[in-house]
Structures are given as C-alpha cells and as structure tokens.
Amino acid sequence: MSDIRPVLWDDGKIQLLDQTALPLKEEDVICEDVDTLVDAINRLVVRGAPALGVVGGFGVALAMVQGERENWDGVRLHSEIARIRDARPTAVNLAWGVDQVIASVNQGLSKVLELAHKIAEDDESANRTLSKHGADWILKVTGKTKLRVLTHCNTGSLATSTWGTGLGIIRELHSRGAIEIVYADETRPLLQGSRLTAWELAKDGINYLVQADGAAASTITRGLVDFAVIGADRIAKNGDTANKIGSLGVALACKEAGIPFMVAAPSSTVDISYENGDSIEIELRSPEEVTNLHGVQTAPQLERGFNPAFDVTPAKLISAVVTEHGVAEPSQGQSVEGLVK
Length: 341
Fold this sequence. Notes:
With 341 residues, the chain is α/β, with parallel strands linked by helices. The protein is 39% helix and 18% strand. It folds into 2 domains: 7-122, translation initiation factor eif-2b, domain 1 (Four Helix Bundle (Hemerythrin (Met), subunit A)), CATH 1.20.120.420; 127-339, 3-Layer(aba) Sandwich (Rossmann fold). The chain has helices at residues 34-42, 49-70, 74-85, 92-102, 109-142, 166-175, 192-204, 216-221, 247-257, 288-291; strands at 7-10, 13-17, 28-31, 147-151, 179-185, 208-211, 227-230, 234-236, 241-244, 261-264, 270-271, 292-293, 296-297, 310-313, 320-323, 326-328. A 7-stranded mixed β-sheet has the order 6-5-4-7-10-15-16. The chain has a 4-stranded mixed β-sheet with strand order 11-8-9-14, with helices on one face. Helix 2 (49-70) packs across helix 4 (92-102) and helix 2 packs antiparallel against helix 5 (109-142).
C-alpha cells in the first residue's frame, strides 16, 4: 500500500502536498508564515478533517516560529493562532488540533512540536485500528467475501496523516482479498473523488470506477453496491454527521436499497458538545466553484452559484459509525458517546 503523507513539519516550515494539483502534478506548497498556511487551508491545498487536525497542531508551531522571527507580542501570537483555528468552520478537527497544543505555548516550541507530532502519530494509529473494526463489521453484517463499495469524496491518506478512514477500511478489505470494485463518486464541484480517491486507488492497485455524483443513487438502487462508506468532518452526540456535500443523497439511496451506510472517522471527529446536527455550521464556499470548471465558465453568471461544502446526514440513516474505539449503530439507537474515550 502507498505511504502518502500530506502534512510534514520541515525545519520551521509546514510542507503540504498540493491536493489542488493532483492527479496531474505531485508538488508541494511550503508554508513559512500564517498567511500562506491559512490560504492553503482555504484553497484546499490540504483538506480532510484528520489532516486538518495535524495542520492545526503544526500551525501553532508555525505561528510561534513566525512570531519569534517578527517579534510578535502575546496578543498578536494568539490572534494569528485563532486565524488558523477558524479557517474552516465545519471541520472540528482543525480547531481540535490547535486546542491540543495551544496550552503548551508557554513551554516553548519543542513542547508544541512534540504534541503536534503526537497528533499525527495517533491519527495514523487510529486510522489503522478503525479500518480493522470497520472491515470486521461489514464482513459480518453482509456475510459476503467479495464486496462492491461506493465512496464519496476522499477519505484516504490525503485526508489524514496517512492511511485513511473510509478509504482505510477499503484498503483493509482489499488486503483481505474482499474488494471486488469501488465506485468513486467524482465529488463536485472540486472533484476530490475523481482527482484524489481514484489516484490513491490506482496507486494501491484497487479495482475502481469513477462515476458522476448524479449516478450514485441509481448505482446503489440497481443493486450494484453492497455498502457505502464515507468520512466525516463533525459527528454530533446523537450520530448526525456532517460530511462533503452529496453524502446525504448517498445515505438516502442506501436506505432505499437496504444496504449499510457507514461513517468512518477518528474519535477526535466526534463532537459531543453538539447534541445533534442542527447546530453544525455549514461552510459556504465561493459561487465560482460551481459556475466554473477548471477555469472555464460553465454558467451565464459567475456569482449565481449556491455552494454549500457540506451536508448533514441524520443518525437514523447511518448504519455504523466507526472510530478506533469500535463501532456504534446510530440507526439502531446506539449512542456514539462510547466511541470517544
């Protein structure tokens, strides 16, 4: 399996694999200051909730390095850290990553870096563990030895420290010889499925087909899929899950077809401060992302686009939420609180 690490700390700088350039180019963006990092987060150079958690930890260290270089006072330092923390409001892991290290700022850069590296290490460990839990659960529930799976957006190494969540489960199943084919939704408007997920599947030699998002419901209800798996950007206490726009449609189709719909995420994505999904802020991105395609205007007026980046899938539609601590079944009334320890 490929070992892709989208976020690295390199001698006072953050090195990000530029996910806006994939799959045609593999190049890095080097962040030496907070402005560059926040811009990279906003442009989706780096994305995926667990990866953003790692960025949050290293982002505090980056702000400290810049603050030392430019003689910031404490107020300026914490203001710049807050800019990083708030750069993407729907994904809880970015703020969580900042919060894991910010209390140690007064202990110096080496302590903050120690904690930031631990976030990355713990995320990889969590991904590999949850992948085993998810694979065990789906094989037991379906009773099948070969599975056809649909996934939406990108939940692989590129979205995490490495390995992946939803795609990590697919990798685990593939290692057991249990994957027949993966249907990868293209994921409009920025094509994370066709550009990123397909790129990762190809690297791992996993059989896949890319399909338009609008084909997902038909593929599922025609009986071509055994289960669907997605990631998550925030999971509320009752199991309601915010994820890439289009996830809700996949869940509804799975309910109609009577097949499992699975959510995979590290426990840091479970936010029990939210009772349900009603209070989750849905990030609205630029209208031009849906009225343009790779720089080509595809609608008569650029500003006449509606572009929510996420939707919320109700717990009643979610067959399983998988973290490193196990599996809960929200559609059966099981709480996800036990998945946070």
